[in-house]
Structures are given as C-alpha cells and as structure tokens.
Design a protein that fits this description.
This protein is an alpha/beta fold and about 325 residues long. It contains eleven helices and 14 strands.
C-alpha cells in the first residue's frame, strides 16, 4: 500500500454568488483508512464531495486523489473512485443482480468479471438470493445495494455521502457492518452528521463547520485533546449538600451536574480536582466513595468544536 495520501485537499474554497460554502478546507486521508467526514447539515460536506467527483468546480485551492488534481483528471482517475450519494436512485424494475450487471457494463467490465464481482458484492451486502425487484426493497436494502454498486469498479477510494441517514436501527447496523468490512481493502470517505456511526467504524475524523475543517485527528486523540474541559465523576455518601456547595465554589470547577451516578464535574484542572476533592471531603465531613475522570464522548467533542472553533488542526 502506498504511503502517499489517498486524498489531499489544500485551501479549497467554493462560493455561490454571495454565499461561501467552503472557506479554505484542508484535509488529508490516508490510503486504506475509514475516514469520518463529520459536520452538521449545511457545513459543506456535500459540496466538497461534488468537487472531488468533478461535479462542481472549486473557486480556489486544490484537491488531489492519489496525487492527481481532480480539476484536470480524466476517466482513468474516475474509474478508481466509487460513490454513493445521499439519496441514491435505482431503476425499480431491476433486480439487484441485474442492477450490478448494468453498473459493470457501464464501466466496460467483461461478463466473467461482472459475474464474479456481482456474486461477491451481493454476498457482502446480504442480498444474494434476493430475486424480487429493487422497487420493493427497504431503505436499508437499497443503501446496501448502493454500496455494492459503488464497489463494482473495485475502486481504491469509496465516497459515501450520508449512507445511514433515515435508516432504522437495523438498517443502520447492516450498512455500518458493510462499511466496517471494507477496512484495509479500500479507502472510505464516510460523510455523515451521525456521531455514533463515526465512533463505530472510523479510524480518523475531520469535523467541518461553516465551510472550514476545525480539526482532523484520530478518534481517540481527538477525544483526548479536543474534548473541551475534563469531566470528573465524584460520589460522596454523607454531607452531600455541604460538599456540593463547597465544590461549586472551587475555582477549577466550571459546572456541577447531579446524576444518578454522582456529581459530574466539568473541570479546567484534573490535577487540582485530585488534590482538592479529598480536602473538601475532610472540611465538610463528606465520605468520598468515587473519584474518576470521564472520557469525553464524540458528541462532547463535536459540540465543543462546532460551537467554539479553534482553527484548523491537522
């Protein structure tokens, strides 16, 4: 596998008259990774994807796939890319095998290759043996078929635009399992606004807000470095009211939330929490039962960075 990035974007900008959709986007995706492209609706994710696919022109900057500028690339590069749009379209009178065969012919594949790939992809999608027409498929079945058709040309890069939106829990699990199975086999750019989906399948994530990438990190590093303030869970078994009042007055405490498990404290200084909590227990007569840091969730990170962006981080 090449050490060069599968996808590299530098200072990408896109304007629509008086509206700025992308404002200096920087992004780098390693080959073989499942990369989460995360952001709220309207952040610019689909505009970025359209530029990568050659369906729109950037106003400024540069985007490269496997080292080739997408603005000047020809069909040789396009054949290395698969794409599933957010609302895929199908011919309802076709069967799943017929649709994949049709896709294969569009790519100029021979009959033997079409048959071999169709069988493998239908099995991966859980659609082998399904003979009824696509018009009768559930939304989840259509999404899985959509991923299968996007893989028909054996792409090195697969771009998925909101592949799990509007799916029920069962359909979402089936699509995410299919995406996870691609790890190490092809590079996946997974655009979504669903935080839980990113946590399940992605190695690395970039968060887009207002047309800018506010951070790009590995998932674990992102939580550790950009999760906002540290959270500490504290539980005492006596003099809880006095302890809570004293805790709220501490300068290292930003907020205190009472939960079923104890006091969830947002802190600016974990070391101060470890030092001061036992002292507060002594001064208030509280009995300390639990004191432990709580890892930030991706939702914490996302809300912190979207609401308080700190500039692009790579």
């Amino acid at each position: 596998m090449s050490t060069a990035p599968a996808l590299q974007i530098r200072d990408l900008g896109k304007r629509f008259r008086d509206k700025t959709a992308l404002d200096g986007v920087d992004l780098e995706v390693a080959e073989g990774s499942i990369f989460g492209f995360l952001g709220p609706n309207g952040a610019g994710k689909t505009t970025t994807i359209r530029i990568l696919l050659g369906l729109a022109r950037a106003t400024s900057g540069r985007a490269e796939i496997f080292g080739q500028d997408v603005a000047t690339a020809g069909n040789d590069l396009r054949r290395q890319v698969g794409h599933l749009p957010d609302v895929p379209g199908f011919y309802p009178w076709m069967t799943a095998p017929g649709f994949l065969a049709f896709t294969g012919r569009l790519f100029g594949l021979d009959r033997a290759t079409i048959a071999e790939r169709s069988d493998a992809l239908l099995a991966m999608a859980g659609l082998n043996g399904v003979e009824h027409k696509v018009g009768g498929f559930s939304r989840g079945m259509k999404q899985r078929l959509g991923i299968a058709q996007a893989l028909m040309n054996a792409p090195r890069l697969l771009i998925l635009d909101e592949p799990t939106s509007a799916l029920d829990p069962t359909g979402r699990k089936e699509v995410l399992d299919m995406i996870a199975a691609l790890k190490g086999r092809t590079t996946v750019l997974f655009s979504t606004h669903i935080l839980g989906d990113v946590e399940r399948v992605c190695d690395e994530v970039a968060i887009l807000a207002d047309g800018r990438v506010v951070t790009q990190q590995g998932l674990h590093q992102l939580k550790a470095c950009y999760g906002g303030q540290t959270k500490v869970l504290i539980k005492v078994t006596s003099q809880a009211d006095a302890f809570t009042a004293a805790l709220r007055a501490e300068p290292w405490v930003s907020s205190v939330e009472v939960t079923a498990d104890g006091l969830l404290v947002a802190s600016t200084d974990l070391a101060a929490a470890a030092h001061r909590v036992p002292a507060l227990c002594v001064s208030t007569g509280a009995a300390l039962q639990r004191l432990e840091p709580v890892e930030a969730s991706l939702e914490d990170v996302f809300l912190d960075l979207v609401q308080h962006p700190r500039g692009a981080v790579a």
